[in-house]
Design goal:
- The chain has helices spanning 49-59, 75-87, 103-106; strands at residues 2-9, 18-23, 45-46, 65-69, 91-95, 111-114, 132-135, 140-141.
- It has an 8-stranded mixed β-sheet.
- It has a single domain (2-146), classed as Alpha-Beta Barrel (TIM Barrel).
- By secondary structure, it is α/β, with parallel strands linked by helices.
- Helices cover 19% and strands 24% of the residues.
Length: 148
C-alpha cells in the first residue's frame, strides 16, 4: 500500500482531529475527480507498518481518529492498519467511492464515507449529494454534520 500524502485534518470527520492517509492506486477513476494523480498504483511512498506506527505514536494524545482516503483495494493491509489504530485508542474512518464495503473492513471502522464523486451532485456539504457519511455501529447517516 502506497500513500501520496499524510495530513492532520479537521473537516473529514466532524469533531475529530484526524490523521489522514491518501492512498494511491484508486481503481474507480470518477469523472471530475480532483485527484487523478492517485489513480496510479505505487505512486507516493510505501506505507510500511513501521512508518505508520511511528506516525500514530507521534500524534497519540493529540489526534483522535485515523482516516484512509481509499485503500479498500488493499483489504488485508488496510485491516491490519485499522486494527492497529484501534488498539492505540484511535477511532477509524474510510472514505471510499464505492457504495458498499466488505464487512471484513467495516467491522474495524467507526465511520464510513461512501459514494463516487458526482460533480453534478457535490460532496458531503451538498444537500443533493449521492455520498453518505455513516456511523458504522448504528448505520446512522450523519451527512447533516457537513451542511452549513
Amino acid at each position: 500500500m502506497y500513500y501520496h500524502d499524510f495530513n492532520v485534518v479537521l473537516q473529514e470527520v466532524p469533531g475529530e482531529i484526524s490523521l489522514c492517509f491518501t492512498i494511491s492506486g484508486c481503481p474507480l477513476r470518477c469523472k471530475g475527480c480532483h485527484s487523478p494523480f492517485l489513480w496510479k498504483e505505487g505512486s507516493g511512498s510505501k506505507l510500511t507498518n513501521n512508518a505508520y506506527n511511528e506516525i500514530l505514536y507521534k500524534y497519540l494524545g493529540f489526534a483522535t481518529c485515523v482516516v484512509f482516503m481509499g485503500g479498500e483495494w488493499h483489504a488485508k493491509e488496510l485491516i491490519y492498519k485499522l486494527k492497529y489504530a484501534k488498539s492505540q485508542g484511535y477511532k477509524t474512518c474510510l472514505y471510499t467511492g464505492e457504495d458498499t464495503i466488505d464487512s471484513k473492513i467495516t467491522k474495524h471502522l467507526t465511520w464510513l464515507k461512501t459514494g463516487k464523486w458526482d460533480f453534478t451532485k457535490g460532496g458531503l456539504s451538498s444537500p443533493n449529494t449521492n455520498q453518505q457519511f455513516i456511523e458504522v455501529a448504528t448505520n446512522k447517516k450523519l451527512n447533516h454534520l457537513f451542511l452549513k
